[in-house]
Specification:
single chain; 416 residues; alpha/beta; Spore Coat Polysaccharide Biosynthesis Protein SpsA, Chain A; UDP N-Acetylglucosamine Acyltransferase, domain 1; 13-stranded parallel β-sheet; 9-stranded parallel β-sheet; 7 helices; 35 strands
């Protein structure tokens, strides 16, 4: 859904002291991607006019990572040299924003907010309205509370550090997401002060200003509490990881994949599967993986950026990275398939075999304790145990060619 004159500000400058890390908080990984990458993907899906990302701690590392991540919309990096609060952070982006536009404010450490919730928030924040995204939590500790009057109208957001004991009992919380006209946002931000226990400029203070100026504040509820859960500690990051992994596992099983134990499967990228795929316990999938029909993946395999064709069987503790596995191939256990490896139909690669940057033709076998690197192996070849293609002379790599129907005996060393 496209919103004309929509500008998004993503706040991503914080250090995250409780993470006990030298890395910017928004660069910690969730399901194989940085927290900030999840937020930017969702922001990108709204088709805004511009996305502004406010960065501070670890700014250079953040920028370097995202240079290689193209999106539909370009985004502008904005520096917050001193972390003086969320209001101060938003203010750094305002000089680059059209004051007639609607501004949507997101948080780089709240990764699972849905496109649907943000669309509803933006619609509610058009014109003279101010819209905030709220949620009801069983345990609201750590969040600002939504204070409503007798008419159930939003009157203010009270940060927990400044809340009274009675106010801390409120279970409706502020998620931080706001949609508001840019011109009015600037007007209210100019009036902020830091007279609070944290000595920070709270973005949330603009809500009470809007109310006192006669503007209506709409509270839009997010359905799933996990969708608005922020990450301030390793424990919260772990809780979100398990939540997203459970959801991904559920979707895979609904599509016809058998997961022997959904709690012991991790998808850290994208996975496309055919029918009757069976995945045993402890499997990790990274990057972009395509699995065909009737494939079995054994326990504790790690598969990254690979294609596995129909009928393949990958035995336990096998690592496949950047490989193309043909139909009815058998690999493992304890095998390693490295980038550039292509195994044609009915190939057998056995235990403690490593294949790198090589193609192995139909029906060929490398069953035991071998290294095949920078090689072309023909059809119906048998390579004996302990065989090595000696591809490196200390300075350069060299290629080995083995024709069809060749028999290579055990403990052979093929010097390229």
């Amino acid at each position: 859904m496209s919103h004309p004159s929509l500008e998004v500000i993503v706040l991503a400058a914080g250090k995250g002291t409780r993470m006990q890390s030298r890395r910017a908080k928004v660069m910690h990984m969730l399901a194989g991607r940085p927290l900030l990458a999840h937020v930017l993907s969702t922001a990108d899906s709204l088709s805004p006019d511009r996305i502004h990302v406010v960065i501070g701690f670890g700014a250079n590392d953040v920028q370097d990572y995202f240079k290689a991540c193209p999106m539909k919309n370009e985004f502008r990096w904005v520096r917050q040299e001193q972390q003086l609060g969320t209001g101060h952070a938003v203010k750094q982006a305002l000089p680059f924003i059209d004051h007639a536009s609607t501004v949507l404010i997101l948080y780089g450490d709240v990764p699972l907010v849905s496109q649907d919730s943000l669309n509803r928030l933006v619609e509610a924040g058009q014109g003279d309205e101010v819209a905030i995204l709220t949620a009801y939590l069983d345990d609201p500790r750590g969040y600002g509370r939504i204070y409503r009057d007798e008419s159930n109208e939003v009157r203010a957001i009270i940060e927990e550090a400044d809340a009274s004991p009675e106010q801390r009992e409120i279970s409706e919380v502020n998620t931080g997401f706001i949609a508001v006209n840019a011109g009015r946002l600037k007007h209210w931000l100019d009036r902020l002060d830091n007279q609070n226990r944290q000595n920070e400029y709270y973005l949330t203070d603009i809500i009470s200003m809007a109310v006192s100026d006669g503007f209506k504040v709409k509270g839009i509820q997010a359905g799933d509490p996990y969708a608005v859960m922020g990450v301030n500690s390793r424990q919260q990051l772990s809780a979100l990881e398990r939540h997203i992994q459970r959801n991904q596992a559920e979707k895979l099983m609904q599509s016809g994949v058998t997961l022997m134990d959904p709690e012991r499967f991790d998808l850290r990228g994208t996975l496309r599967t055919g029918q009757d795929v069976v995945i045993d316990v402890g499997v990790v999938v990274n990057g972009h993986v395509d699995i065909g029909n009737n494939v079995y993946i054994g326990a504790y395999c790690v598969i990254t950026d690979s294609v596995i064709s129909d009928g393949a069987r990958i035995e336990s503790h096998t690592v496949i990275e950047g490989g193309h596995i043909g139909s009815d191939v058998r690999i493992g256990p304890f095998a390693r398939i490295r980038p550039g490896a292509r195994l044609d139909e009915e190939v057998r690669v056995g235990n403690f075999v490593e294949v790198k940057n090589s193609s192995i033709g139909q029906g060929s076998k490398v069953n035991h304790l071998s290294y095949i690197g920078d090689a072309t192996v023909g059809k119906q070849v048998n390579i004996g145990a302990g065989t090595i293609t000696c591809n490196y002379d200390g300075a350069n790599k060299h290629h080995t060619d083995i024709g069809d129907h060749v028999f290579v005996g055990s403990s052979s060393q093929l010097v390229a």
